[in-house]
Fold these 3 entries.
Entry 1:
Amino acid sequence: MRIIRAKDYDEMSRRAANILAAQMIMKPNCVLGLATGSTPIGTYAQLVEWYNRGDLDFSEVTTVNLDEYKGLPRENDQSYYYFMNDNLFHKVNVRPERTFLPNGMEPDSDKACKEYDQIIAGTGGVDLQLLGLGHNGHIGFNEPGAAFEAGTNCVDLTESTIKANQRFFASMDEVPKQAYTMGIGTIMRAKKILVVVSGEDKAEIVKKAFFGPITPQVPASVLQLHGDVTIVADEAALSLI
Ligand code: F6R
């Protein structure tokens, strides 16, 4: 496990973008596993900047995202599909048909999960998986207690997540109660993993996940068992180690 210490969020974003860019340059037809959330926004912005300068080419890249809300149309600005278009896909020359997220509008969970696992397998496997880190150690939507070997699965969102999301929706009915997520087993099969973490509020979980015991109660702790993990974190997130 390699830890890259960045001064602040901007440097973290640049360092993480460097690793993704290196992957694309070394293997133009690579498969990138991507994440949403606030942490990677700066990383995507940096990739867009380098693309605009002519230094990056996404034309042969395939992307597979970690997760998507179940039942949320793609046009909804809270969907992860919308997020990815907004932050990256619409700003670079990635081919839309080579960008994949779980199909949130498939009501049959088994079907949606099986299809997504097939899509991932069909890409030949993820070369580099980008991950953010939840405050409770979740990766993707794999919350504490999630099975380490799982493939794509449908998760019930916790009451606190549903409540926190409420402010983004017009009514409680619209707030997603479930999500599809790549499982921990799928994440662990990526050839390389890149974790981005920022902020003092993540310091405790960084210590627990990467320096504590490996346990399903801290899903990210499983990454200690992966042979090629790079953590890019700012000083605040590393303040307890
Ligand atoms: C996003 C995802 C989540 C986030 C995590 C951290 O696709 O799967 O696991 O990476 O919740 O989120 P932020 O970056 O907002 O702190």
Entry 2:
Amino acid sequence: MKSFDETLAMLLAAARGRGHRPIISLDLADSLGRIVAQPVASAIDVPAYDNSQMDGYAGRVAEMNLSSDPLPVSQRIPAGHPGGPLAPGTVARIFTGAPIPQGANAVIMQEESVVSEDGRVRFTAPVAPGQNIRPRAGDIKQGQIVIQAGRRLSAADLGLCASIGVGKLEVIEPLTVGVFSSGDEIRQPGETLAPGQIYDSNRPMILGLAKGLGCRVIDLGCLPDHAEVTREKLSQAAASCDLIITCGGVSVGEEDHIKAAVSELGTLDLWKIAIKPGKPFAFGHIDQAVFMGLPGNPVAAWVTFVMLVRPYILAACGVTDTDPQGVHLPADFDWPKPDVRQEYLRGWVNARGCLEIHARQNSSVLSSVTECEGLIEIPAGVPQKRGALLRFIPYSALT
Ligand code: AMP
Ligand code: MG
């Protein structure tokens, strides 16, 4: 059996060994979740001018602090309408986001001011230089790189790009990922189940995971447990996919035809990986397409996707740090009989900030994924006692 780390290293090397993917130019609105191909630098300072953080009065600190007499208001500066230089001995009525007039060095908020009947204003609190002024370039300096190549774009990243006036981005062309389920017992939702049949959980799940990573996905249907049909369908899929994923049919039963088909059409490495759930994992090539065979049990398919396929897909698209962010938290359970494989238990963080696990950890129990919040890593062969610090990987870091 290969260790998880060894398997992951081989997959990442395979992904990076395929060289750079094509770059495409996309509108900002279409770029969510895409991976940036070129660093994004700002052509402007943000903000581009000193501006007010408050609705209030802009003036000179010395005049506003010293004067016991109210000061006249010499101009009104709403956002989007720059005023003129500030006349000595006066203040400007100013609104949030409006440019600070030349000569003013602080803004005092309107809650700390009293306007007299003649329209002059006095202040009820002292003011310090720079107070309530958002300085030019306080967020971003002209020339600064705001987004590094290889970053997956979040909604806030799109906002940041917009804030520097960038409306188009160079991103990596996503992988085209085709997904097959397999098995004569598999039926589709909407169909009626005959005895011995089950619904296809894996295909919508794996398609959803791939889509969530920004891949272009192709639903390739379900492979019957039939050698020739399997060969034909895999061969066809290779023409249109960068990555073909199958679920099931890669263990040792004689109804498992996928391994043989991939070996005949291309190359196949079948790895027994030391993770639980998820032992059988196949990797290979059919023509230009990469092939990955996931286990059939739904939880095993889910875990192998998020722990192995996900980093492969990200690395193939130029992401350098593909490790999911985990945190170490104390276990609120005992795990006295660890497996010889590294285990990924489904669990959550409880109100005491400790890790709890789902009662049913069988790899066929898909509700153990949906009813939990993350994966808890148990190192191979190491018994765990309540209080032990274990790595928790929240789903948000995996999907
Ligand atoms: P296999 O590796 O094909 O023997 O599948 C292992 C187990 O996973 C069997 O119990 C299958 O019925 C089940 N399984 C395989 N594919 C799916 C699927 N697409 N949806 C739900 N269960 C599946
Ligand atoms: Mg099967």
Entry 3:
Amino acid sequence: MRGHFITFEGGEGSGKSTHAAALAERLQAQGIAVVRTREPGGSPGAEIIRHILLSGIAKPLGAEAEAFLFAAARDDHVRNTILPALEAGRWVICDRFIDSTRVYQGALGNVEAKLIRGLERITVGKAAQPELTFLLDVPATVGLARAQSRRGGAAADRFESESVEFHEKLRAAYRALAAAEPARIVVVDGRAPREVVAERIWTIVEERLHPASSLSIEAVAP
Ligand code: T5A
């Protein structure tokens, strides 16, 4: 049986990694084989492109060029990590995916929607569409403060260093996406205490994907 594909989306510091890890752990504790992965990255080729993108050296090339780089990374990631895992019956939990490109490069970077959708068709097609996406929604100031405290003295990356206004627009663009695709994207208030957020996510996963009915023997760590 094919595995399920779940993605986590939201602004910087909204809790995506925290809750992707918590969900993976809970599924694994039930005996479900899980691959936890992330974008940009998640495969050897895509991790190289991640360094280029997050260092900011591609920023002067413009948002369109960055969209091509995210697409190149995604193509490698889908072919080498996501599809093989799903086909092997594993559940895939991915920290950021297509909605990040739609929002960061599309809505905020003004890259034409037609181009974004075209890249999505080539890299993701029908085979690697997420079935369920959690949008962790927090005000930009909350997310940025969390991200800053987590990285300590290290410098902000390419997108973290954008203005608060940029991050507020990002939040609005994400909420608009969720409103347009309510069957796939579930908005979760990321300001709530960790355990509350984790429980809400688990309830939705149970309701929609019925983990108890897809147990497998092997559990794969990220
Ligand atoms: N990007 C990515 C694009 O522009 N286009 C694309 O197509 C793609 C795929 C990736 C960057 O690339 C851009 C977007 C991004 O800017 P990244 O390094 O992967 O960058 O960074 P992010 O995805 O933004 O991840 P972060 O690590 O910044 O944030 P998370 O994962 O949302 O947050 P997390 O879980 O690490 O939590 C941050 C801190 O908050 C605490 C955690 O313990 C942690 O310390 N926390 C909470 N505190 C209180 N209450 C809660 N409920 C909490 N939940 C977590």
